[in-house]
Amino acid sequence: MKAETINTYKQVSPPLRKKIEPYLYLLPTLLLMCVLLIIPIIMVIRYSFYDNVIINKNPVFVGLENFKLVMIENATFFVAVKNTLIFVGGSIVFHMILGLAFAVVLNTKYLHTRTKAVSRVLLALPWMFTASVIAILWKMMMNPNGIINYLLEVANLSSTHIEWLASRDFALFSITFINIWAGYPFYMVSLLAGLQGISNDLYEAAAIDGANINQRFFRVTLPQLKPIIISLVMLDFVWTIQQFALIWMTTGGGPINATEMMSTLIYKLGFSKYEYAQASAAAVILLVVCTIVAYLYVRHQRGQE
Amino acid sequence: MVGEKKWYLKAIAIVVLIFGAFYAGFPILWMFLNSFKPNAQIFAWPPVWISDNFTFAAYIEIFKDPEKVRYFINSYFIAFVVVVLTILVSVLAAYSFSRFDYPGKKVINTLIVSVQAVPPIVLLIPYLSLIVTFKLHNTYGALILTYMLLTMSYAIIMMTGYFNTLPKELDEAVMIDGGSRFRALWQILVPLATPGLVAVGMYTFMISWNEYLFALALTKTNDVRTVPVGISLLMGQHAYEWNQMMAMSVLGSLPILVLFLFFQRYFIAGMTSGAVKH
Fold first, then answer.
1. ipTM of this complex
2. Gyration radius of chain B over CA positions
3. Please, what are the domains in chain A?
4. Which of B7, B124, B131, B229 is the most exposed place for a label (fewest CB within 10 A)?
């Protein structure tokens, strides 16, 4: 009987039903996206052109005033941009170096399969921890009386109790270091998958041509990995530029503003200074940067297909 | 032929691995060791590796404190609900992308892919007023909806990729027998896509379990707060109970570690498909 009702239904309006069916499957997704993503984006862009929104009941359109306040009249903005660039650049470079080195080692034929399997799990471990655990763990290790200073003393590298996270000289370096630790496994695992996908024929052909190990790496391996490397750099850029949790829980942007980033600046403007309009302007700047990179990423991914 | 050279390469590989094992493993080992120490010994100089007063006290303190146990219940509940709902939503969307052709498909698909590029912190300010308007502030609902949004995009991409590997003849066979498309999806495709579902589920669980920014901003009281926020609140308290913070970190990391160790292959396939075309 059930089948019958379906059949009658089909007969009543087959073309319409057929036309809307694919959209029906997308309905929950689109609904969620509209309400929780598109509307907030429109709101934040609107906020950035009005004077103090949320607090002011009848905000007035002020054009680019908020952008001027944030970018030109707020000295912290430039510090935040500079710090963000150092943080993002340092993270990407070292993620790539460590990720590639470990991936190559995990893919060599010189090691036993079981050694490689165990090492792969071990080396991927930092990936499993949430930002608050990573923050608290490294805060403990980077304490002036912590294990890092002890190891440095034992290795005769330093005998002072360095304030890794509390001194203006070291804080930015330290959180970049922590972020490198937390993020390289994604590179390692992706590059390893890429290495495993390179056909052996290419290496054999190179060996016949008399290529040595360096030439094989730079002429075969790297060019073959290029699409993955480009994707990784773009993804990592978008992820790292918005990193908030780790910075917030280790230094909070301090000391003074030694580790102030775009993300902590937005958060502070909004949630401790209640300058929602300025916070929105800073957020829009970040959104534009990420959108450009995302556009390049999607184009790159499409190009591969 | 190149025996000597191979020996040399093997030595380099072993050195890199030992360095890597220390670099990756030592902080984690230190976390475990410190969770079993009395608080006074955490910053002992020289360090105490394994305390003479080896103790489970830090763990017992956590289990005795109903507020801390509550963080875990909240995290588990929210993560499980998000996993189920994200899978439902993404299976439907992926089916649409994989099996139909219609105007606007490419635009919608691009839109969904680009969700991942929107930094959560950009959404936070309008989001907060939106959530307050919906009367969802400080509820499970707010976090569940948010994590669905954060995971949906990647889940749909992964599921679409998975459905594309299953031949269309499968669903056509069901429909010839008089079954609806909907039945073909749930009775044939979904069971066959189990590996894809596991990968999506693990990814979703991990994101929901680990999320911090929204969990911090959208909650006010301990009865809805999740583990990451709970851990960060321990940091701000009057006296630093480092051993408890470490025990809490171990307990908070355990579910993800267990998932990773048991479902490594799915896990990696799920997490890397953004960069690697499988």
1. 0.89
2. 24
3. 15-47 (no CATH), 65-304 (1.10.3720.10)
4. B7
